[in-house]
Amino acid sequence: MQFKKVTHVLFDLDGLLLDSEVLYTKAFTTVCAKYGKEFTWELKSSLLGFQGHECAEKITKTLDLPLTKQEFMKECGKLYEVLFPSVQLMPGAEKLVKHLHKHGVPIALATSSSKESVALKMKDHQELLDLFHHHTMGQSDPEVTKGKPDPIIFQVCASRFPEKPKPEDCLVFEDAVNGVKAARAANMQVVAVPDPRIDLEQLKDATLVLKSLEDFQPELFGLPPYGA
Ligand SMILES: [Mg+2]
């Protein structure tokens, strides 16, 4: 087999299970435009996987905005309240999570987002959120001292399964280059489902790159196949 068998699965949230990256882009673009600055794709792609305060720091510095990172986060926060409750799931997300849960595969969420942000975004998807054994929410978690590409979020997340799986027994799903780097640094296999604008060269460390979660074949990693 090309891939190693896994027992536990860790999911990123934004841009992977949820189509929320477009909404972050909308909020950041709006706030930057208010101060006459352009929020570019180049900047956006460098932020994927960061915690909120790390994004705010990088944006305010890179674009030289006349705002502190706290002020920037506050302005974005007002927009999130309007944008996030209507966020949609990515194609194939619900099917995969429900499938793994149904077959007793332990699954967890490993997101850089805060608890409040997850609550806002998952308001209409609570049923799906409840299928995870636990949620590791980086920005609200004192053990997660850094955002991705640091591996700590995946290490902390894996350690919270009662079975304490080894890194090589864990499979990570990610959409971001920083997330792929974090998973690989944690010594876990990682399936990348990136934004199509991301240069594949940046994802060369991913175990597998897919266009959509709908294309994932669980049996490749020793997980129960669909229809089983
Ligand atoms: Mg993501």
What does this structure look like?
Keywords: Hydrolase, Magnesium, Metal-binding. It contains 9 helices and 6 strands. With 228 residues, the protein is of the alpha/beta class. The chain has 2 domains: 8-19 and 88-221, Rossmann fold; 21-86, DNA polymerase, domain 1 (Orthogonal Bundle), CATH 1.10.150.240. The protein has a 6-stranded parallel sheet, sandwiched between helices. Strand 4, helix 9 and strand 5 form a beta-alpha-beta unit. The radius of gyration is 17 Å and the shape is globular.
SSE ordering: EHHHHHEHHEHEHEE
Give the mean pLDDT.
96
Unreliable stretches (pLDDT < 50, length at least 5) are none
Cα-atom Rg, whole angstroms? 17 Å
Shape: globular
- Give the end-to-end Cα distance, rounded to a whole number of Å: 20 Å
Bound molecules: magnesium ion
Number of helices: 9
CATH hierarchy, class of the largest domain: Alpha Beta
CATH architecture of the largest domain: 3-Layer(aba) Sandwich
CATH superfamily of the largest domain: HAD superfamily/HAD-like
The biggest beta sheet is recorded as:
6 strands, parallel
What is the CATH T-level topology of the largest domain?
Rossmann fold
Cofactor: Mg(2+)
GO molecular function, one term: metal ion binding
Protein name: pseudouridine 5'-phosphatase
Family: Belongs to the HAD-like hydrolase superfamily. CbbY/CbbZ/Gph/YieH family.
Question: Which terms would index this structure?
Answer:
binds magnesium ion; six-stranded parallel beta sheet; 6 strands; alpha/beta; globular; DNA polymerase, domain 1; 37% helix; Rossmann fold; 228 residues
